[in-house]
Amino acid sequence: MRVQAGLQPEDWRRWGQFTTFKSNAAELSRKQVRPEQIIYCSPLVDPYQPGEEDERLMERILKELIDNPPRVFVIQTRGPLIVRDMRLLTILSERTTLRVSFSLTTNREDVRRIYEPHCASIADRVSSIRALRESGIIVHATLAPILPCDPQQLAELAIKATDQDVVGDPFHVRAVKKRGATTRDEAARISAHHGFDSWHEPEFQSAVIRIIRERVEAAGRRFEVGPKGFSRLARPR
Fold first, then answer.
1. CA 22 to CA 32: how far, in whole Å?
2. What digits encode the pLDDT tens for the residues 192-207?
3. Fewer Cβ atoms within 10 Å of its own Cβ: the N or the C terminal residue of the chain?
4. What residues contact 101, with CB distance under 8 A and at least 6 apart?
5. What tens digit of pLDDT does each residue of 34-91 get?
6. What pLDDT is attached to residue 121?
7. At what angle do helices 151-161 and 202-218 cross, to 10 degrees?
């Protein structure tokens, strides 16, 4: 990212405070997408963040993909704005394997306001998931990152909101994730301030994962964590 996108050290320090749009993404899709490709949009940035409401870049990309569909197209988001593109998503789902991975990070609205103050409420996310499902679009609940919650109730929320397998991921900590990005210092400071330090501890995370897995599997669904879970979303039919 730093090399390919030309980010400078100051940009990296300000991560999350600005948005840079790839304005020619739709045109590049027309030129570069191939029928055999599997595209995950996006493991790095939410394509339906607030700036998309005015930019409407995803709308243009989806129109190009309808004319030139890849083998699989996965959208990762926590933004109800995706419902705006329901008509295009429905058409695309008839031409490729389309999956939406919608983030449900906690069952507690007070926690959501602490960690995700600028993101949609839990109720709005669940409503969006149901709207997508009613249009025949495949939607997975993605519990990532797993914020402080009642694990049983969060699992129940995911089960009721969707009819698909569930994916989860706790806070990334270096003790577990040896390479790549981990949870930013800001999140750790928030956890410490509110008494949620244990949610960053590997043993505590494992216990939470176990509770969620038991409830999801009792409902007849699979529950996978981390890369194994996300890779399942990108599998061809």
1. 15
2. 999 999 999 999 999 9
3. C
4. 74, 75, 76, 77, 139, 140, 142, 167, 230, 233
5. 999 999 998 778 999 999 999 999 999 999 999 999 999 999 999 999 999 999 999 9
6. 97
7. 40
Sheet holding 72-77, edge to edge: 38-41, 72-77, 97-103, 138-143, 166-168, 223-225
Helices 57-67/25-32 angle, 10° precision: 20
Look at the block and give the residue holding tokens 């449900």. 104
Q: What pTM was computed for the model?
A: 0.92
CATH of 74-233, one of 3.30.2310, 3.40.50, 1.10.8, 3.80.30: 3.80.30
Q: Which amino acid is at 4?
A: Q
Angle in degrees, CA 101, 104, 109, rounded to 5: 155
Confidence of residue 12 (pLDDT cuts 50, 70, 90): confident
C-alpha closest to that of 31 among 73, 61, 76, 72: 61
